[in-house]
Amino acid sequence: MTISSYERLKKDTKALFETPTAAALRNSLYNQKSNLAYEKCITNLSLYSQFSQLPGYLERKLNKHKNILEKLKEESPNANTKDDLGLPIIDGNQALVTRSTTTKSSALSKLQKNQILYKDRRSEDIFANDLIVPKLHKSNQKVTQHMKWKMFRVLMGHTGQVTALAFDPQNKYFVTGSSDRTIKIWNLASGQLQLTLTGHIMAVRGLVVSDRHPYMFSCSEDKSVKCWDLEKNKVVRDYHGHLSSVYTIDIHPTLDLIVTGGRDSSVKVWDIRTKLPVYTLTGHKNTVNKVYCRSTDPQIISCSMDSTVKTWDLVAGKCDKTLTYHSKSVRSFCCDETREEFISGSADGLKKFNLPSCEYLQEVDGLPHDQLNQGNLILNSNCCNNDGIMFVGADNGQYGFWDWESGTVFEQGTTIPVPGSLNSEKGILCSSFDRSGIRLVTGNVDKSVRVWKPVNE
């Protein structure tokens, strides 16, 4: 070290430690260093946007009023695409992977062959097995313009939560089931209550009206499944065999079979005429939330609280495929028969699959939700029509309308509970489009039945 260098170092040391403003200078340097380190740490984490915010006092200090990822993207759009370890840097929207000639790792070499896509600011582990974490394929088709949907009628009549509904094949009326143990029949055009059926001793959880018979089938928490003659308005058959509450029911479109599922984790196939179970399909590890019947394979699809969706071979009477793409309870799914696809809904999001191979296609946009403060967003029901529109209703009253092809939301909102109800009673429990697809009916926690229709704005 030269004399001049030593003298300059001595001078700097004296200015730093012996001047009256030394304390203020040290604090300024310390705060600046800690702020930059904290900012860099937060920026490098692959988290949701609500976690990528600096604390309020630090935002004011650094004069930052927007998301860190967006700020850095504006400031350095052509920044280096590798971090200090030589690994690709991942931002909030897309993973940029550059080809490296110096990296000899086989994992990185495989990674560099493909571009990894991200959706909704959600990043996958870049070293994950493709079989465990499938790639997200975004649809390249343009979003179809749809009309806005507005609620135009609220029907009151039930004294309990509305838990099930179904439509008449001629689209003249629809039926609703409730925790008040009754089934009500409503005129679709006028909204007038036509009939109230009693027979169950606990909440009615599932309803379906036959296309080929003058029958309606219902299932309940009283473990029973009933067949109603709609010409005589009374029960003509009972199906006994479930060991606990029955939560879902559907009728086969071409065969004289009904399929039920419930809390005993089994899916039962019944012969309508003999009242005997043809099959008891086992495989689910928890409550079966919904079953759906098709005329072609897979003829039976079910979802469960064990986070799986299963397809069943009706001829062999056993499980065909098990889809394990969800990590939380799958409460509902809906099938678009014209496109041969279905979308399943869970607290971890909406996922689209094709039929009959049940291949994973894409992850559908979700509703905005603060999971950190409000917990999981429970999706109770989703349904679709032939115009490429899907409706989803949640436990906290949130709802949304999706464009099926692109998987994007074109309308969303939150229901308002009817006067006299609690704010916590705005959840949507069931939903269905009518046979024409131009009316939507939802059943709610606040005991109301709401009818929606598209409007021109």
TrEMBL record:
UniProt keyword Methyltransferase, yes or no: no
Any single Gene Ontology cellular-component annotation: catalytic step 2 spliceosome
Any one GO BP annotation for this protein: mRNA splicing, via spliceosome
Keywords: mRNA processing, mRNA splicing, Nucleus, Repeat, Spliceosome, WD repeat
WD repeats mapped onto the chain: 155-196, 197-238, 239-280, 281-322, 421-457
Record flagged with keyword Cell membrane: no
InterPro entries in the cross-refs: Prp46/PLRG1-like, WD40/YVTN_repeat-like_dom_sf, WD40_PAC1, WD40_repeat_CS, WD40_repeat_dom_sf, WD40_rpt
Localization annotation: Nucleus
SMART domains named among the record's database cross-references: WD40
Summary of the function given for this chain in its UniProt record: Involved in pre-mRNA splicing and required for cell cycle progression at G2/M.
Quaternary structure note: Associated with the spliceosome.
Homology family: Belongs to the WD repeat PRL1/PRL2 family.
UniProt xrefs under PANTHER family: PLEIOTROPIC REGULATOR 1, WD40 REPEAT PROTEINPRL1/PRL2-RELATED
Protein name: Pre-mRNA-splicing factor PRP46
Species whose genome carries this gene: Eeniella nana (Yeast)
